[in-house]
Amino acid sequence: MRKEAEERRNEILDAADELFSQRGFDGTSTKEILEKVGIARGTLYYHFKSKEDIMDALIERYSVNLLETAQEIAANKTIAINERIIGVVLALKISGGSSKEIMEHIHKPQNALMHQKIQKVIINGVPPILTGIIREGIEQGLFNTPFPYECMEMVVVYMNTVFDDDMVEMTNEEQATRIQAFTFNIERLLGVESGSLMSIVKQMFENGKG
Amino acid sequence: MRKEAEERRNEILDAADELFSQRGFDGTSTKEILEKVGIARGTLYYHFKSKEDIMDALIERYSVNLLETAQEIAANKTIAINERIIGVVLALKISGGSSKEIMEHIHKPQNALMHQKIQKVIINGVPPILTGIIREGIEQGLFNTPFPYECMEMVVVYMNTVFDDDMVEMTNEEQATRIQAFTFNIERLLGVESGSLMSIVKQMFENGKG
DNA sequence: TTTTATCGACAGACAGTCGGTCTATAAGGA
DNA sequence: TCCTTATAGACCGACTGTCTGTCGATAAAA
Asked: CA-to-C1' distance for B5 and D30, Å?
């Protein structure tokens, strides 16, 4: 029955994670959460000050995990630069275990707020990590741009909006064109020869499946 | 008392427009809307099937107006290409009268869903318009890219996310750097000489104030 | 007479509050 | 050392007020 506050908090977050993933934030009632955990109303509000507070805690837990994983990959200097870039991008989608299916269900309209908040985390958290790698690449003469951070910001924003969200509806053919164009554009942005990033971008989309 | 359906619909939309702008979608109750219009509950639900339906109609009305204005500017061949690009971009912010303050209040977290829907309209509606102008520019030898559409998509997505939303919090100094980098990146994307788009981008941000 | 617009009472659901309970453990006294 | 009392942290569930959407009745127009 009685548990440590942190344990209870996590139980509540686990339950909310699953329910929000299935039904969305608006589609989940606090009653469903507390019944799933097996606690009373008051207990829920003892640990969290509001329903949105639960969502914020969930995103926090998720983000920390996500960005830590990405950072670890980025900092691993034993791996080639190209491989690290791929690894960081893929880490965003596979989502390291803690919040299992959040990313799969985040795109539904019921989750607009949650989506926006996660988007914010990614847009602010990922470019700095990627920029570190790109700077190394610039030193090695692989890339050439005076604005590596803003390049990465542009790339991350675009990928997240066009390829990961349902903002743009595309046929498979249209998506193939988009990927081709995207590759071409990144090459221009990073100041490398046309075609030299084809394999790396290809890998991102194949392994990530979208 | 009794009015034509379309007139009532518009009254309701006008009231909702104002209230949503002030308090956001979630923060506005249907009661407030119907009291502002001076009708009973049943009447509201006679004209709209749900609260979200009101929002969708509002966005529809807003979008049509917005994209029509942008299209008119884009099609006006008496104006120089550069001027038309600026005009289209500015049309997005100034928002042509119909929905007065929507864009000013859209960024608050309470409006996440509305924001997402408008974002979708812009990302799908604006790039085609801009691409038309860019293609003309390519023919005239002003620009050089095999992927004008995808370039514009990238530019629009980036501007809307980084400069128009509150996704990225920036100091004035940081914003200045972002604009400088943004200009540089567009130049690379459109295959023009460094510095040649400086004045046009500058105008966009000065006239639009953000 | 049929269609169209309006009304307002009502049902059902939901988020968050509040007064109070229970228990482990710490503090203090014998 | 043992017993009693005090405290704080975890928990409970009834209750409040609010909100969205429904429905049958009604009035006006066509």
From this structure: 15
- Listed as ranges, the nucleotides of chain D within 7 A of a protein C-beta are 9-15, 18-25, 28-29
What's the pTM?
0.92
Distances (CA, A) of A4 to A8, A10, A156, B29: 6, 10, 40, 39
Is residue A155 within 8 A of residue A189, CB to CB? The reply is: yes
Q: Is any atom of strand D within 7 angstroms of residue B51's beta carbon? A: yes
Distance A23 CA to C26 C1' (A): 45
Which two tokens mark A183? Answer: 């590759």
Is the distance from CB of A96 to CB of A2 less than 8 angstroms?
no
Both tokens assigned to A100: 């299992």
Asked if residue B69 lies in contact with residue B186, where contact means CB atoms within 8 angstroms, the answer is: no
Shortest distance, CA A3 to any CA of chain B (angstroms) = 34
Query: CA of B160 to nearest chain A CA: how many angstroms apart?
Result: 10
DSSP 8-state assignment for residue A111 = G
pLDDT tens for the 210 residues of chain A, in order:
788 889 999 999 999 999 998 889 999 999 999 999 999 999 999 999 999 999 999 999 999 989 999 999 999 999 999 999 999 998 887 654 445 566 667 777 778 899 999 999 999 999 999 999 999 999 999 999 999 999 999 999 999 999 988 899 999 999 999 999 999 999 999 999 999 999 999 998 887 654
Q: How far: B117 CA to D29 C1' (Å)?
A: 38
Closest alpha carbon to A167 in A89, A109, A94: A109
Helices (H), B48-139: 51-75, 81-94, 102-105, 112-139
